[in-house]
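Entry 14. Ran structure prediction on the chain below.
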Amino acid sequence: MTVRWRPVTFWMSWPTSVGGSLGPMTQTFTRMDESTADEWAVIGVESSKSQRHQGETVLTLLRMLSDRVDGFAVDQLTHCLQTATRAERAGADKEVVVASLCHDLGKVVSNPNHGAIAAEMLKPYVREDVYHMVKHHQDFQGKHYFHHFGGDPDAREKYSGEPWFALTAQFADDWDQVAFDPDYDTEPLEHFEPLVMELFASPRFF
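Output, structure tokens:
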């Protein structure tokens, strides 16, 4: 059985910059090469409205990490909360704190490349050094455990000289690799919600 969607009628006041007319749009395009500037104007407006609530999606994904323990002493949400708590108490700025909270968010999708996934999710919202901090944190964290698996504990050294090296080392050594303590005074997710909502409300970098 084929299910067909009924056309949706939008009644919009078009901005003069994209045509100058007022009136209804009966149906948005079904293929991009047949789209119009007016239709893209609507999409831009609606996308901007959705963007304001993007932080809620991030918070939902973070909560999903509470179901993952994976053999550690704390679940993955607690680990992320504890990493962010340690970063905040060390005086890290807002972008670093939120990135610390979200650094393992990619595990919701895939564990092996979770750092790269989380980094791409954060990329429009944080500066470049913070992006690289998240993307490469596993190589830096490996200093503390790669030797157990025959890996290279000095994997971080291939990034020596990069302007983000010191920040990523601080993140991995002082906040991330120590954040598995069930007795640590970890801030709850509610504590970080305003920061998450603020950061993800408006992308600044593309």
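The chain has a mean pLDDT of 88. Will compare against last week's run tomorrow.
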